[in-house]
Amino acid sequence: MKIRSLRLEHFRKFTDPIVLSGFSDGLNVLAESNEFGKSTLLSAIRGVLFERYASRASTVTQMQHWSNKTSPTISLEFELPSGLYKVEKRFLHKEPYARLTMPGGVLHHDEAAEEHLQGVLNFTQAGKTGSKPDNVGMWAALWVTQRESVDQPDFTDSARQTIHGCLDLEVGALTGGTRGKKLLASVRAELAKIRDGNKKPAGKYKQAVAEQLVAEQALVVLETRKQRLEQDIAELQTVKRKLAEALTGGEEARTGQLLDEAHHKRDSAQRFEDQERAALATRRLWADRLTSAEKEVELRGEHSKTLEAVAQRLETLATAEVARKLSLDRAEEALNRQREQLQQATARYDSAGKQSREARTVLDLAAMAATLQAFRDRLILADRAQARVNALVARLASLAITEPELTRLRELDKQLRKTEAVLAAQATHLTMTLFPSALDLVRLDGGPAPTGPIPLIHDAVISVEGVGEILVQPGIQNREKLLGRQREEARQLSDALQALACADVEQAEKLYAARVRCENELAQARQELSGHTPADPASGMKSGLEALRNQVSILENRQSAEMSTAGLERLPDISTAREMARETERNERTSAEEVALARAPLENLEADHTAAVRLHSQADSQKAAAIEEHRRLIGEGDQRLQQESAEALAERLRVAQETLLDQQALIKAMELSRPAESVATLDARIVRLNTAMTEYASERQSMQQRLEVLKHQIARDEGEGIEEQVLVAQHAVDRLNQEIARYQHESEVLEFLLTTLEGAEQAAKERYMAPVVKRVTPYLQMLFPGAAIDCDEQFQITGIIRERQQTESFSGLSIGTQEQIAVLTRLAFADMLLERGQPATVILDDALAYSDPDRMERMFDLLTEAAKRTQILILTCRGELFTRLGGNRLRIRAS
């Protein structure tokens, strides 16, 4: 089948009529951006072919535009070997229709059009819920929608029937001999009697396994009971011993004595705390009384001061009444003069403040530069210290000896010397005095005779020429044992020295001394490094070399940024900047003092002026108010004296002070007699001891109960003959094991026979699948030279065989490789359909999304090759990339 044109109207996003035409017989490419509607075009092709014109299934209602809900209309022209066909359908309309124009101009309508279309394109009628893959047949495998390109074609039953029809024409139907099928069925039936589909035991085999499991469980139960009987006997003896100890031991009595003592101490502590609470309550009472008396004295003193202040204010008001006019004139003149002075001082202060801020900025930057230089100096010293640490760490790694190893060497050397000393102390001393003429005649152990005394710890032979030999055996107690120990200790010392690559203990001592010196130097170097890289809480810097290096970088960046903001190219030294800041600060302070001096009297002058203005109107009212207040205060003082005289108040204050002091002394004296333990502590102890007494009684009762239970269990088990039951159960298990082994052998024989027969059957099926593999392989080898495929009976590729002749599982391949093989498979099946006269067109919607540039070029070559035989439609949003594919470029135009 070759698509020639597609026309849509009111289909999803396409409300206005549009036409897609100009299809070539080979490769066609529609490259547009995302959201353009490429996938919508594929849905329209599927809809006009496979959806029923009168259907209202969800797959049909989804064709409508989401806002206006108008009736979708689709027209598709396609060509078959028999000629040009045109199908037109209108959906979801009160008068829906289907029209199929046949080659030669014959026109079919509605149901007749649907039936003829199904016959022409080899698909089945859609159901009430719309078209499904099984209705569509092979077209579902050849037309790939978005996100489906990675998956292999999912062949429905109808699609597989189409493929089987093509294969039957090529290789004949897959058949086998009747006798072979009966034999295979017979073997499977016999195997099914003892094995199920999951290769698990069945029938009598399963029954034997179940009986074996029951017998083994019974044996385990009996053996467990036998072990429990032995454990019960041992536990019985233990419980008897513990119960005897509990009845005769003194811990429970000791605990009872401690409980009585705790109750006695608790009563004493409770009495003390009650007395203490009463004393504290009395002290609070007299403290409140003292506070009340002191408050009354304070109130009377404040009253006298207020009365004196009111009298003084009356005198002041009288004087102000006479001089108010003179004060007003003077206040106005002084206020104007002071305002002018304040204005001049403020201008000078603003100028000095600006200069001071600029100088402080320079000083801050100079201080930052000094701090930065200090950090840089520390960084240089820290880098040097780090280099020294690294060198010492490397040196320490080369001194591979530790204190435990040296200590072991010393112990081994000391033990060897001790053994040699014991041998030397018991050695036989040999002295030979010979005439000069006999020196050559006498030999010791084959060597010349010694001229002086020598110690002997081993057997020695004195040979006298012409006379014979004398055997000297030293009289050392346990000589062989000591000599063996000496050899073993010498070997251990030698092995230990070799492990440390030392010739002797002295060299090991020197090596360890060098390691100790290196460790000390390393500790000093690390201490020095820590001294150069401490934490700086003020700046938030952590300790360590990298933190110091980061801090230097931060300060450098900050200094550069702030100098740029201040418009400074260079900075003075810190002393100059500090002197400039001090000078500008002095000027600013002087100006501020002048402003303060000018402002200080201003508020008072303004107040004086305002007061003088108001004085005339307020003088009388103020005087009257003062007189009234003076009278009120005198009356309140007289009333207080009537309630309590000054002498009575003084006596009340004295009694409260003395009583409070007496009560505090009493509390202090009570503190000296406070019990060592509080009531809470003793309550906790009493609870703990009561719990212990309860546990003692409970444990004793529990042991008595356990004793009776054990006696009963032992008597019961001994009476049932457990050991005899164990022997009977073991015999039953052995018998069932033999029976299961027989079934196992029988199943293995049948399994082998079944595998052999199925292998023969599989070989026949592989001959049947050969045409499918034959068409996929050329495409595959263009992508993977020398590769082959494995294919199952469902026409699914299960694996790929490449250079190493090892099968790789399809699911284990990369997503890109799976997608490429899935596309090639669809091209191969399209070739098979076309060769057998079946219609076929391949449509790929946004496929090859996971291909690298090299694979993409090869896939372009494969698509170009396949397009020589099959019409292919590519829908893609990657127009620039697919330009290299070539092919016929399609464009949508308004109808």
Describe the overall structure.
The chain has 895 residues and is of the alpha+beta class. The chain has 20 helices and 21 strands. Helix 7 (178-194) packs antiparallel against helix 17 (722-783), helix 9 crosses helix 16 (679-720) and helix 10 (403-426) packs antiparallel against helix 11. The chain is extended, with a radius of gyration of 58 Å. The two termini are 24 Å apart.
Number of helical elements: 20
The shape is extended
Spatially, the strands of the biggest sheet line up as: 7-6-5-4-1-2-21
User: Got a strand count?
Assistant: 21
**Structural class of the helices, strands and pairings?**
alpha+beta
Radius of gyration, taken over Cα atoms and rounded to an integer in Å:
58 Å
Distance between the termini: 24 Å
Classify the helix fraction into a percent range. Answer: 55-70%
Averaged pLDDT, please?
A: 82
State the low-pLDDT regions, or none. Answer: 171-177
The fraction of residues in strands falls at: 5-15%
**Largest sheet: number of strands, sense, barrel closure:** 7 strands, antiparallel
How do the helices and strands line up, and which of them pair or pack?
Blueprint: E1 2-9, E2 18-21, E3 27-31, H1 38-50, H2 58-61, E4 73-80, E5 83-90, E6 97-101, E7 107-109, H3 110-121, H4 133-136, H5 138-142, E8 143-144, H6 157-171, H7 178-194, H8 203-248, H9 251-398, H10 403-426, E9 428-430, E10 442-444, E11 447-448, E12 454-456, E13 460-464, E14 468-472, H11 479-499, H12 505-532, H13 545-566, H14 574-643, H15 646-672, H16 679-720, H17 722-783, E15 788-791, E16 797-801, E17 807-809, H18 815-835, E18 841-845, H19 853-866, E19 871-876, H20 879-882, E20 888-889, E21 892-894
Parallel strand pairs: 3-19, 3-20, 8-18, 18-19
Antiparallel strand pairs: 1-2, 1-4, 2-21, 4-5, 5-6, 6-7, 9-12, 10-11, 10-13, 13-14, 15-16, 16-17
Helix pairs in contact: 7-17, 8-16, 8-17, 9-12, 9-13, 9-14, 9-15, 9-16, 10-11, 10-12, 17-18, 18-19
